Amino acid sequence: MPADTPSTTLTVERDGSIATVTLSRPSSRNALNAELRRAIRSEMGALNDDDSVVVVVLTGADPAFCAGLDLKELGPSSESVSGRDGLEFSGGARPFTKMSKPVIGAINGVAITGGFELALACDFLIASEEARFADTHARVGIQPGWGLTVELPRAVGLRRAKELSSTGNFLDARDALAWGLVNHVVPHTELMMHAMKLAADVASNDAAGVRQILRTYDEGADLTGAAALELEGRVSAEWITSVSGDDVEARRRAVTERGRNQI
Questions:
Q1: Is residue 193's pLDDT more than 50?
Q2: What are the Cα distances from residue 236, in Å, to 97, 213, 216, 223, 240?
Q3: Contact 119/107 with Cβ under 8 angstroms?
Q4: Band of the pLDDT at 7, cuts 50, 70, 90?
Q5: How confident is the model at residue 36 (pLDDT cuts 50, 70, 90)?
Q6: From the CA atom positions of the chain, what is the Rg in Å?
Q7: CATH top-level class for 6-201?
Q8: pLDDT tens for residues 133-149?
Q9: Phi-psi region of 157 (alpha: psi -120 to 50; beta: other; left: phi over 0)
Q10: Confidence bin at 132 (pLDDT 50/70/90)
Q11: How many Cβ atoms from other residues are within 10 Å of residue 79's Cβ?
Q12: Range in 85-89, 135-139, 152-156, 232-236 with the lowest mean pLDDT
């Protein structure tokens, strides 16, 4: 099979203000080779800069979400992974730029090591019943460099994070739901429909308001309780001066009507 090209490692589809990004190396279980890593950063950065995009859905081409770093790419060379393509895994690196708009991870299969970190970089996760998660950094003999030791404890708690990283064991979708790692578990055939419905719900809100609330969550996560409360109060006071009472009242009526009709 010929080597992947930038147009085949990743696809981006648009549906109004919703962008769907799909890792597209299914024969390699969407393993993160250099080309795919570059494509993820490039395309996610472009979507972040595109004001017409309100929400992003990130998924993988079946049968996997992402099997992690493509170690086959290194071959017999003794060169480091970072030396191969300049995408070092240090200095606060992330799989993609910190997004100013919500990213929903639609986890359709295994998310392993670097693929697990890619999932953790999303704002929240919807899992297929076929999804499984594993941190195999210690089994492979490499160290996390895309935020796993920060984001995984935030998602499941420190003790559970330590268990996953030190054992390398898999966590299935139902346990991932029980542990708080994913928000929903749905039948595999319904995954994208469910993810797109949530994306549409996000897109139906005030986009600037959503971005600011998520930014406040992220900034507050790095603070102590008192400092986080002070941050929220300051942001709220600044924000309220930028909106009109008529706009808020119109949105309140829309929320009330939506509540009456929502199942």
A1: yes
A2: 26, 9, 10, 17, 6
A3: yes
A4: low
A5: very high
A6: 19
A7: alpha beta
A8: 999 988 888 888 898 99
A9: left
A10: very high
A11: 9
A12: 85-89
The two tokens of residue 187 are 């039948």
Q: What is the pLDDT of residue 262?
A: 57
18/110 Cα distance (integer angstroms): 24
- Give me the residues paired with residue 21 across strands: 12, 58
Q: How far apart are the first and last CA of the chain?
A: 48
- Give pTM, 2 decimals: 0.83
Three-state SS string over the chain comes to CCCCCHHHHEEEEEECCEEEEEECCHHHCCCECHHHHHHHHHHHHHHHHCCCCCEEEEEECCCCCECCECHHHHCCCCCCHHHHHCCCCCCCCCCCCCCCCCEEEEECCEEECHHHHHHHCCCEEEEECCCEEECCHHHHCCCCCCCHHHHHHHHHCHHHHHHHHHHCCCEEHHHHHHCCCCCEEECHHHHHHHHHHHHHHHHCCCHHHHHHHHHHHHHHHCCCHHHHHHHHHHHHHHHHCCCCHHHHHHHHHHHHHHHHHCC
Residue 190 or residue 225, greater confidence: 190
Mean pLDDT of 61-81: 74
Q: What is the 3-state secondary structure (H, E, C) of 214-250?
A: HHHHHHHHCCCHHHHHHHHHHHHHHHHCCCCHHHHHH
Tell me the β-bridge partners of 106: 59, 126
Token pair 């460099």 in the structure block, residue: 145
Beta 132-134 vs 10-15: how paired, if at all? unpaired
Which amino acid, residue 180?
A: G
Q: Where are the domains of the chain?
A: 6-201, 207-261
